[in-house]
Automatic annotation (TrEMBL):
GO molecular function: monooxygenase activity
Region (Disordered): 180-200, 337-357
Compositionally biased residues, Basic and acidic residues: 180-194
Annotated protein name in UniProt: Flavin-containing monooxygenase
Signal sequence bounds: none
Keyword Oxidoreductase: yes
Source species: Neurospora intermedia
Biased composition regions of type Low complexity, renumbered to the chain: 337-352
InterPro entries, sorted: Auxin_biosynth/cation_transpt, FAD/NAD-bd_sf, FAD/NAD-binding_dom
Length: 665
């Protein structure tokens, strides 16, 4: 560790306004200070007694609950739909007391909690809180009932330094089950058949076709987008008895992944990426290739009986606030006939085999549906962010083979002679690195143009420190891992990530030093909190290294950093220092705009775009803005993010919609 610390000390990490950038309008909450260490570790019997005291106070002396929280610093109460139909984080005794007395719905049905001792991971125990300084405290899982339903939670206690009393540091509740409506699974699963003589009854296939087409009823919810956001939302709604229709413009389920660049493989491991109700099988690879994931999405739709219209787009939409319903005109397209194309070209040597070309005759129809809610699930971001302000980027100034956004890039053409063509990729995050590696593997001379600093963590370090402790082979059940992760208020999560980032940087010291020598600008993330802070507060600015960093260190991929682009010119890019980087192909891996931009494009500014707020980044309490909660427009929701976020927050969205349909929200 000492050697790696010396190496880290020599790395020039950038700490500028750019490296600390977050979503505009969001709040950069400070990391919470770690509490003091306990003086004497409690025995098992003492831990049990301390946990029981918390339960007794909540159940029998609710007005005294705020007094259970820390005096020496702020404690946190985090509530995801347990006591209100909102996502809240309250910091400090005064705000907690006000929330519990004035806002929490506990008068008709008091909050009742129980210690969850069903598994060792959940029982009251002394657990580690801080990875670097070794802080420990008492933690335990709980179950609860409230006016809203049933759920689970996590409690963490630490010892006051002066009085040595055990006090609550963080208290988390999240609703799992809507009141009186257990999910139809396990012992509640549907029968699947109606025995007896029923002349003319439909079989399962006929019923499914009727459900998909909504010939006899309107969908309660219209979902736009058939990626992980749309699928998880539809699955959760189905378990609540809420009908939904997913529409997607693509011809196949999974095309939102299938059509992305050739080499794309998920950077997150399989244990982190399970979908609700149908986890990946035990033989699934640790890192999922995009086409395999696309096929799994197709299987998921079939296995869960989700309703999907493909080749479908929204023509118009309007919301009737009096009727509490939308009117949406959908253009739905069908393949009337198809035949092999006579214009198919033979594949280029070394290129991946393309699917056979087919000429299709498409039939269109316009259908009107009247859903009560709409969920936009078109990805965690909005429209491709093409930097159109750069002079020469439009109008055919560039005379090379290709100039495009990374969303339009699939793969490079293999070259017979290495270096016979040059490529430039603008950007320095995940997509840029993957595309640079694709160009390199196909024989191009590649230059990455880095506009601002990047947080880099190796896949090995990310697995070991950031994801592996919760999501790994033999680790906790994924529902437990999710509960444990999101039980951290954002300020505490940020502090935890500061510690974990220090460990990943120590682990990756030699790699990062090599990147620094190659001129690649590095940072430690917002407030030194690394990957998670970059993702949750900015949704970009990082790279999980799966091999490209080594190519940069070895000089096989060149880097131009710290210099702006002056113009796109005939033969490439002219930089602000006067250098012209020549290229045959230019790809702008420059990210995406806010999800709100897609809402504007699909639903219009006046109808939706001007009423919804910006999406992503923290609000003043540390909950995410605009997504998974009220958007600013009645009966309109945003849902997205990676597979792990989609898994957890899909239930949050579905429960709120169910409550709204029942007049509770």
């Amino acid at each position: 560790m000492g050697g790696s610390s010396t190496i880290v000390d020599a790395i020039n990490f950038v700490n500028t306004a750019s490296s600390q950038r977050i979503e505009p309008g969001s709040v950069n909450l400070p990391p919470a200070p770690w509490p003091a260490h306990f003086k004497t570790e409690p025995t098992s019997d003492q831990v049990t007694k301390i946990a029981a005291n918390v339960v007794d106070t909540v159940n029998n002396h609710f007005d005294k609950v705020p007094d259970l929280f820390l005096d020496s610093q702020d404690g946190f109460w985090r509530d995801h739909l347990a006591l209100t139909w909102d996502l809240r984080t309250l910091k400090g005794k005064d705000k907690i007391r006000n929330f519990l007395q004035a806002e929490a719905q506990v008068k008709k049905v008091p909050l009742q909690i129980q210690i969850d001792e069903s598994q060792a991971f959940r029982k009251p125990q002394v657990g580690g809180f801080a990875p670097v300084n070794g802080l420990k405290g008492i933690q335990f899982f709980i179950t609860f009932t409230s006016q809203n339903g049933k759920g689970r939670g996590v409690v963490r206690l630490v010892q006051e330094h002066k009085t040595e009393e055990w006090k609550i540091w963080t208290f988390f509740l999240t609703l799992d089950e809507y009141r009186g409506h257990p999910e139809p699974k396990g012992p509640n699963r549907p029968k699947g058949v109606e025995h007896g003589g029923q002349p003319g009854r439909m079989n399962w296939a006929q019923k499914r076709q009727e459900e998909i087409n909504f010939t006899k009823k309107e969908p309660d919810v219209l979902i736009l987008g058939c990626g992980q956001g749309g699928l998880t939302a539809a699955a959760r709604l189905k378990m609540l008895g809420v009908s939904s229709l997913i529409i997607d413009r693509n011809p196949r389920i999974g095309d939102n992944w299938r059509n992305r660049y050739h080499q794309l493989v998920l950077h997150d491991p399989v244990w982190y990426d399970h979908l609700p109700y149908l986890p990946f099988p035990d033989h699934w690879p640790i890192f999922t290739p995009k086409d395999k994931l696309a096929d799994w999405f197709d299987s998921y739709v079939k296995a869960l009986d989700l309703n999907v219209w493909l080749r479908s787009t929204i023509v118009s939409s309007e919301y009737d606030s009096a009727r509490k319903a939308w009117k949406v005109v959908i253009r739905r397209s069908f393949v009337k006939s198809s035949r092999p194309s006579s214009s198919s070209n033979p594949p280029t040597a070394g290129a991946p085999a393309a699917p056979p070309q087919v000429e299709e005759e498409i039939e269109h129809m316009e259908l009107t549906v009247y859903p009560k809610h709409i969920i936009q699930c078109t990805g965690g971001s909005g429209k491709p962010n093409m930097p159109t302000s750069i002079p020469g980027i439009a109008g055919g100034v560039f005379k090379g083979d290709r100039l495009c956004h990374s969303s339009q890039f699939t793969t490079a053409t293999p070259l017979a002679k290495r270096g016979s063509k040059k490529a430039i990729v603008v950007g320095a995050c995940n997509s840029s690195h993957d595309i640079c590696q694709d160009f390199y593997e196909r024989g191009y001379d590649v230059t990455m143009v880095q506009r601002s600093s990047t947080f880099v963590v190796s896949s090995t370090a990310a697995l070991k420190y950031l994801i592996g402790p919760l999501y790994s082979e033999g680790g906790p059940a994924v529902e437990d891992a999710d509960l444990f992760l999101w039980s951290h208020p954002s300020e505490v999560l940020k502090t935890l990530q500061q510690d974990l980032t220090k460990l990943t940087i120590e682990h990756d010291a030699e790699l990062l030093a090599g990147l620094d020598r190659a001129g690649f600008k590095l940072d430690k993330g917002v407030d030194g909190a690394g990957l998670f802070a970059k993702y949750l507060q900015r949704q970009g600015g990082y790279y999980i290294d799966v091999g490209t960093s080594k190519l940069i260190v070895e000089g096989k991929i060149a880097v131009k950093s710290g210099v702006g682009i002056a113009a796109v010119v005939e033969k490439g890019l002219k930089m602000e220092d006067g250098e012209v980087l020549e290229a045959d192909e230019i790809v702008f891996a420059t990210g995406y705009s806010n999800m709100r931009s897609t809402a504007r494009e699909v639903f219009g500014n006046e109808q939706v775009g001007d009423k919804v707020g910006d999406v992503w980044g923290w609000n003043e309490e540390g909950e995410m803005r605009g997504i998974w909660t009220k958007s600013g427009h009645e009966a309109f929701w945003f849902h997205g993010g990676n597979l792990a976020l989609a898994r957890y927050y899909s239930r949050v969205v579905a429960l709120q919609i169910k409550a709204s349909l029942d007049g509770l929200l």
